[in-house]
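Worked example

This section walks through a single chain of length 414. The input is the sequence exactly as stored; nothing has been trimmed or padded.
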Amino acid sequence: MVRKILLFAIVSIFCFNLSAQQYKEISRAEIKDKIYAYWIGQIVGTSLGFPFENCYVEKEMPIMVERYYTIKDKTPELTMNLDDIRGYLPIVAEGLDGILSDDDTDIELVTLHAVEKYGLDLNYAEIAEMWKKHINRQIWVANKTARDLMETGMLPPETGKKENNENWFQIDPQLVNEIWSVFYPGMTQKAAERAEWGARITNDDWGTHPTIAYAVMYSAGFFEKDVNKLVALAYSQIPNGSPFKEGMQDVIKWHKEEKDWKKTRKKIHEKYYAYKKGDFEAPVSVVSSLNNGLCGIMAILYGEGDFEKTISIAVSAGYDCDNQAATSAGLIGIMSGSKVIPEKYTLGMRGEKKWDEPFNDRYVNYSRDNLPVTFSIKDLSERVLKITEQAIFYNGGRMFEKDGEVWYSIPIDY
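Given that input, the structure is written out below as tokens.
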């Protein structure tokens, strides 16, 4: 009798959870466009911020960046990177008839290849194999340290732990793991779980928390367009006691109090660039996940869902500005689709139209070994969608036809 009651209780709980599961519908055309906008948005963000990467630390830039800049725009008042490709990117891109790869997108490219080869549940040994095959240059701080450790035979997550990786707190994972959320639209818990899994290749402790926050926002952003709700949702998923959670709470508060984002940026720098609390001191770095992650949150809130306003604030805020701009721009692309990305950013990079489609649909890989030299951005979006379909089906979603179109019913958890 007791066994029967227990069995009934288990079945009842299962049925209740099944019936309580919420689903949202989205067409294949729309989700594909959002994935495409995620790629294009990230490319725009990183390209816009590239000339000014790490040039502004103590305060924001003296201008609002609303177009691409090159060496020709250098003035005594404007600090730019002129010793490498960063100050010449628009010229190089138009010469190559496409956009160059960058660590904001090309490590996600490797992750895509890894998932295609091993599946969504690939393990640390498998991802380390892919890193060793494809990621050997054009990497920095935590990524570089983790990759060097792999060469000694060490596997993740050991490669990201504090005792092994001196850069465990840096910005790296929040800019290379957004693709996990694109695999899991609306499934925020799974997106956050896999993004954190990716973050621990290079980072540890609160150094992974911005990655979790952005993972939640990206995943929920497929259906939610209110940036305040997205930030609040992300905040709820960060562990208590985290300096990043405290920072998010502050930025949310400051956003309500201050109309000028520059005042909030000043407060972020004063408190979180060299964060101290009791005996705890966060490592100081221009590329720390803490101050850069919070500037991204600031840009998302003050940008109010507007693509151009969001990326302009993200770049003009300074620090490692191309990275937070790429992540913020990718989020807005997912939220609203490719139609919100102004053509002035995608059809030409020097003030004139050069291409008929964004970046000539040409992604030029000069940084990741043993992969094709060029990719179609549209083809990359289609490849991601195939993985996304698998994730939807594996987690209880389905495909159906409505009005002659393919649609998905996706289980959401927020």
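What to look for: The radius of gyration is 21 Å.
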